[in-house]
Amino acid sequence: MGSRAERGQSKSDRTLDLTIEVTTWVTKQVGGDGSGTRMFEEPVLAGDTVRTALRRFSRRFPELDAALWNPDHTDLGEPIEVVVNDAVLGVHHTLDTPLEGGEHITLLGQFMGGGDPPLPEYRLRARNTSRESENAIHHDDVARKYGFGGGLVPGVTVYAYMTHPLVAAWGPEWLERGTATVRFVKPVLDEDETLVTGTASRPAGGPLSATVTVSTGSGGLCSTGTATLPDSLPSGPDASRYETAPLPSTRPPALGAYLAAQKTLGTPVNRYDEAAAAAWLAKVSDALPLYRGREGFIHPAFYLDQANKALTLNVKLGPWIHAGSVIQHLGAARLGQTLSTRGGVRSVFEKKGREFVELDLLILADGRPVAHVLHTAIFRLPLAS
């Protein structure tokens, strides 16, 4: 699993910082296991450019420093692609573009050789099936007050779209032991013509890996993700650390100080029976056959739906947004099993006037761990100016 480094349980918003996201096999060079994502909050110093900030960061990790730069450190090397604010270097930024603070830089490992086929393209018309949801960010009128073009298609639905080519290509093995990291950068709106694309390969010394993107005709790039298929089932977190607790009879308001103290949240429990499966598959428009029949697998996006419930059934929220998730599958779950979502708040932080909460959750099917999820949401949004 990726982890948030140097963030802590909560922090006040700094005006001069940037986020460096390290993904795929590159995580191995910053203390990870070669999969998922690791996040670093880094200060922006006076006069900093993309180049100087990356040089200062990479010096802390000798293997990264050798891979990121050419031998004389005058330019980038080839194995790692640099993305700034969701555009590859050279579109809006160069190495010498000054930094203002608040930028998001992604170091994305390129796949070398391997001969694995690209993931199949997946095209569909997005559907906002949450227009009647308690979360009013899915309502057209409310979403427009926050600067969006209409009600947002839920993040879990967009994640479901992203998993379709992964499961089509990698099958049940990915549902049993795969990983995924997803970040939602722009909203997908109802009726948007949506395209999911991905590339896959096996980098030297790493697991089968993929990058996945979601784009729409109206909004361009909307979501980015990475996924891996390890050769063996990774060890999960210590299940004894994830305790159960009753859901509150009355939900308190979602305030930062309250959330930060919730190390154990009330536990949502939901059975995934035939009716639940049919409703979910219709909601996310997924027709893959391995989710159907008496031995059908639980859809992986349903795990993130349970993660949402771990938040919404414990606190009363205003309009809020699912910002991203990191998922490690720990064994496949099937139709007829009951899911229990245990865990608590990992961190609360503020950035650019938005308040975020990150949950650390373990999902069990009939008492057996099947997914570890780090789930991030924006629980307080500023109105559009």
What would you note in describing this structure?
The protein has 385 residues and is of the alpha+beta class. It has two domains: 4-109, Ubiquitin-like (UB roll); 122-380, Hotdog Thioesterase (Thiol Ester Dehydrase, Chain A), CATH 3.10.129. The chain is 19% helix and 31% strand. It has helices at residues 50-58, 62-68, 140-145, 155-170, 172-177, 256-260, 274-283, 300-312; strands spanning 4-5, 10-11, 17-23, 37-43, 80-84, 87-88, 104-109, 122-125, 179-184, 193-201, 208-216, 220-229, 269-271, 321-329, 338-351, 354-365, 368-380. Residues 1-14 have low confidence and may be disordered.
Overview in brief:
A hairpin with a 2-residue loop joins strand 15 (338-351) and strand 16 (354-365). Mean pLDDT is 89; it is low at 1-14. Helices cover 19% and strands 31% of the residues.
What attributes characterize this protein structure?
385 residues; alpha+beta; Ubiquitin-like (UB roll); Thiol Ester Dehydrase, Chain A; 2 domains; six-stranded mixed sheet; 19% helix; 31% strand; disordered N terminus
Element-level helix/strand string: EEEEHHEEEEHHHEEEEHEHHEEEE
Amino- and carboxy-terminal Cα gap: 37 Å
Unreliable residue stretches: 1-14
CATH architecture of the largest domain: Roll
The tally of strands reads 17
- Spell out the CATH superfamily of the largest domain: Hotdog Thioesterase
Q: In oligomeric terms, what are we looking at?
A: single chain
Sketch the major β-sheet. Answer: 11 strands, mixed
CATH domain class name of the largest domain: Alpha Beta
**How many helical elements?**
8
Bin the strand percentage.
Answer: 25-35%
CATH topology of the largest domain: Thiol Ester Dehydrase, Chain A
How many domains would you count in the coordinates? Answer: 2
Helix content: 10-25%
Integer-rounded radius of gyration: 20 Å
Mean pLDDT: 89
What coarse outline follows from CA principal-axis ratios?
A: globular
Helix-strand makeup class: alpha+beta
